[in-house]
Every structure is written in C-alpha cells, then in structure tokens.
Amino acid sequence: MNCEYCKKNFKSKSSLKAHQKNAKFCIKIQEEQTQSNQELKKEITNNQDSPKENNSQIIEIHPESDSPVQKSKICKFCEKVFSEEDDIPEHFDIICKVQLERHRKFFNEVLKQNEFLKNELNFANDELNKTNILNEFHENNNKLRNNKIIENYLHTDIDSIKQVIDDNLKYEHIIGGQEGIARFVFKFLLNNNSNIYSCVNHEKKFFNFLNEQGDMIKDKNAKVLTSLLWQAEIFQKVHKLSVQKFLDMNPQELKFSMVYYEDIKNMEYDNEKFRDCLLTLL
C-alpha cells in the first residue's frame, strides 16, 4: 500500500501509519497540503461572498432531475459546478490557477528534497562500504595469535607500513600514477615476493595474504591493501613530494604531472589501475 502523501510503498498499515506519523519529509507534505486546502477553502468562501456571487455561483448537480441544473458547467480543474459557462474562466484565474501554481511549486520542492536525500543516501552507502572493509580487516586481525614461526607474511601494522613509505617512496614512483604506486608496493612492502601477496582468481580479482598472526586474509579487488596504504598516509607523502617538484616546473610539465597526481588521489575510491598492475607483477 502507498502513502497518499509521498507515494512511498509499505507492506502493512502499521508501518504506513508509523511512517506518516514520524517521517519528517512526509509530515511536511501533509502540512503543505493541509495549508493549501485551508487557503483554497478561504479563497472560495471569499469569492462566494464577493459582489460577483451571482455570476460565479457554485451549485450542486442532480443528474436525475429535469431542472435547468442539468445544464450547469463544471470547472475541469476543481470540478466545481457553475450555472453559466462564462463564469468558469474568471473562477479559474482567481482560484484554480493560484492553487495550480502552489502545487507546482510544492512538487518542485519535493523533487529537490528527494534529490538531496538520494545524494545523502549514496554518500552514506559509500561510507558504510569503507567501514565494512576496515571492520573485516580488523576482525581478522584480532584473532588469537599462534606461536608458530610464519614466513612470507605481510606487515599490517600501520606504523611499520608508514615507515616503509617515509623511507622509500620517491617522486619517481609518483610519476607512474597508480601503476607507479603498485610497483613501489611490490618492491618495498612485498619484497618482490609474490608468495606474500598472491592472486587466487585473476578473473574476479581475488587476492589473499598472511598477516603476522598467520591468519589468511581475503582481499577482493585489493581493497584491504589499498586501505592499509591510506591509513599509513601514503597520499600525504605523495602530496608533499609533488608540491616540492611542482614549484620548479613549467606549465607544460605541471599539467603532465598533475595527471598522475590526480590518478593517485582517486585511488582510495577507484584502485583499478593499481590492482591491475599488481596482477602483472605477482
């Protein structure tokens, strides 16, 4: 069943009533309609009391009777009945046209609010997805430590990763964009060892790696690895190195370098080039 005000669909009457009682945007629609109806009623009453009353009298329809009322004319917008057809245009201009404009403005306002809510929902979903990725990683990372000696594992300690970045990331890696970052990660974080971080399904872009505790971590589309790099502030290091170089560049060089800079900047949300380059290295 649909809400008569905002047209949203509900499965039960109880959920519909709760929505109409508590949903702010629906309550606003109800208030707007109530106000519009009250104003329209007031305008109609005022119009009936005006000197033009005899020319715009609203009367009832009695289809079964043989009286002249059967010949009355109806306003197509509000379905009010008039004794004379000539009264309808004046009635429309004074009352219905005003009400129609109000409805249009209200409808446009609802569209704007719906667009705003849609954007807010998309943003919330993006934030939730990032949170879920981090929660999955931390959940795996908090498992009980085992005492066996582990070889070929990936350091997931943020401070350790940050130290590697600070000590080894150069501008030469940055001018390769996301692919340059992938080569840096393979050399300095994975130690040129494909056993540390491996791809188990090239088609679906599934990777996995062992952490310090010996837990096997699944990493679809290299999202966990990318998240670790961002937590270790790799982009802050990229920004610092880039700004130092930008100061000495001519406009053409700067334009060329900004392409790679923006490519890395977008890597947090779209790491396709980084991920695909890793596939060729592993």
List keywords for this structure.
282 residues; mainly alpha; 2 domains; three-stranded antiparallel β-sheet; two-stranded antiparallel ribbon; 10 helices; 5 strands; 59% helix; elongated
Our count of domains comes out at 2
SSE ordering: HHEEHHHHEEEHHHH
Computed CA radius of gyration, to the nearest angstrom: 34 Å
Q: How would the global form be characterised? A: elongated
| Euclidean distance between termini CA atoms | 54 Å
Widest β-sheet, arrangement of strands: 3-4-5
Name the average pLDDT: 76
Q: Oligomeric state of the chains?
A: single chain
Share of β-strand residues: 5-15%
List segments where confidence is low: pLDDT < 50 over at least 5 consecutive residues: 51-71, 143-150
Main beta sheet strand tally, sense and closure: 3 strands, antiparallel
Number of helices: 10
Helix coverage percent: 55-70%
Number of strands: 5
**Helical/strand content category:** mainly alpha
Notes on the protein architecture:
With 282 residues, the protein is mainly alpha-helical. It folds into two domains: 13-138, no CATH class; 152-281, no CATH class. The protein is 59% helix and 7% strand. The chain has ten helices and five strands; from the N terminus they run H-H-E-E-H-H-H-H-E-E-E-H-H-H-H. The protein has helices at 13-22, 24-49, 87-141, 158-168, 171-174, 177-189, 223-231, 234-246, 251-265, 272-281, and strands at 73-74, 81-82, 197-201, 206-210, 216-220. The strands form two sheets. The chain has a three-stranded antiparallel sheet with strand order 3-4-5, with helices on one face. The chain has a two-stranded antiparallel sheet with strand order 1-2. Strand 3 and strand 4 form a beta hairpin. Helix 2 runs antiparallel to helix 3 (87-141) and helix 8 packs antiparallel against helix 9. The radius of gyration is 34 Å and the shape is elongated. Residues 51-71 and 143-150 have low confidence and may be disordered.
